């Protein structure tokens, strides 16, 4: 068996981009050369790693088995090249996170990480459903996710707790009260994230169960849009308490006092078979030692 690095790169590119045309463009090959390289890999393996139907490729079980092995080999090769290069290149890893973490926690973390290690990872900020798909396809090295949203196929480690609070404009009538009841909140217009978001799931499963009547809400997929809507007194929201540390909002928004507290866990997540290269381990160790509460 004589499998080459090029063949493994071709394989992962097809997996990551979904079709041969896009994969060929990304790795600067012709579609014909890419197809030939894939065919040679399957000959070496002795079996197909994609099923073919109507000129389309569908990853099969052999292909799914190959993904973490190919990912590990390519990452180890990259580390060897960097380690013994006369001009060491900047480490390249890709991390993902949900919009809550990306909006309220990640910028501070990245600033500290760059100061300490002099390089930065690539970052993808998406809803939890998209992040998990990228993890399972090995397009992300690790991710920071809320515990309630982690798929059982992924490995996770606790990072820190995050308090969720009800936030309103400082001019909202409820902002003047020492304590707010669930009955009062039941009458409010809620401004929330979309259904696939971890924040919305936490609202539905933790806070909304206290409401016994239908209530109006506005659905937005951007925290800036939500917080500006709160600033403009369009309603109230359920959001990470960290938003009140934001210099653009802290003087204009206020936490409403209720009888209960709500906490969720943040976790460091990766595919169970993911090879954790030294740069990935360096970033994980940094995250583990930096709790921002």
Question: Could you walk me through the main structural features you see in this protein, from its secondary elements to its overall organization?
Answer:
Belongs to the LysR transcriptional regulatory family. Keywords: DNA-binding, Transcription, Transcription regulation. The chain is of the alpha/beta class. Helix content is 41%, strand content 20%. It contains eleven helices and eleven strands. It has helices at 5-17, 20-26, 31-45, 61-83, 99-104, 106-117, 128-136, 182-186, 198-207, 223-231, 278-289, and strands at 50-53, 56-59, 94-97, 122-125, 142-146, 154-169, 190-192, 217-219, 237-240, 253-255, 262-271. Strands 3, 4, 5, 6, 9, 10 and 11 form a seven-stranded mixed beta sheet that branches. Strands 1-2 form a two-stranded antiparallel sheet. The mean pLDDT is 91.
């Amino acid at each position: 068996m004589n499998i080459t690095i090029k063949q493994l790169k071709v394989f992962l590119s097809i997996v990551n981009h979904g079709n041969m045309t896009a994969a060929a463009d990304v790795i600067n090959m012709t579609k014909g050369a890419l197809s030939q390289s894939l065919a040679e890999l399957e000959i070496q393996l002795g079996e197909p790693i994609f099923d073919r139907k109507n000129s389309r490729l569908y990853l099969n079980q052999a292909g799914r088995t190959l993904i973490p092995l190919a990912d590990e080999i390519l990452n180890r090769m990259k580390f060897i090249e960097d380690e013994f290069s006369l001009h060491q290149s900047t480490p390249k890893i890709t991390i993902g996170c949900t919009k809550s973490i990306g909006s309220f926690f990640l910028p501070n973390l990245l600033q500290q990480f760059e100061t300490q290690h002099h390089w930065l990872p690539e970052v993808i900020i998406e809803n939890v459903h998209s992040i998990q798909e990228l993890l399972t396809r090995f397009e992300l090295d690790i991710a920071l996710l809320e515990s309630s949203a982690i798929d059982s196929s992924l490995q996770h480690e606790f990072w820190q707790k995050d308090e969720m609070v009800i936030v309103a404009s400082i001019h909202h009538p409820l902002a003047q009260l020492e304590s707010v009841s669930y009955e009062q909140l039941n009458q409010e217009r809620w401004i929330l994230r979309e259904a696939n978001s971890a924040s919305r799931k936490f609202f539905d499963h933790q806070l909304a169960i206290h409401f016994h009547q239908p209530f109006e809400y506005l659905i937005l997929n951007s925290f800036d849009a939500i917080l500006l809507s709160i600033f403009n007194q369009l309603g109230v929201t359920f959001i990470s308490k960290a938003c009140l540390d934001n210099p653009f909002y802290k003087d204009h928004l206020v936490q409403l006092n209720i009888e209960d507290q709500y906490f969720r866990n943040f976790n460091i997540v990766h595919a169970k078979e993911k090879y954790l290269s030294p740069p990935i381990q360096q970033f994980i160790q940094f995250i583990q030692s930096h709790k921002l509460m």
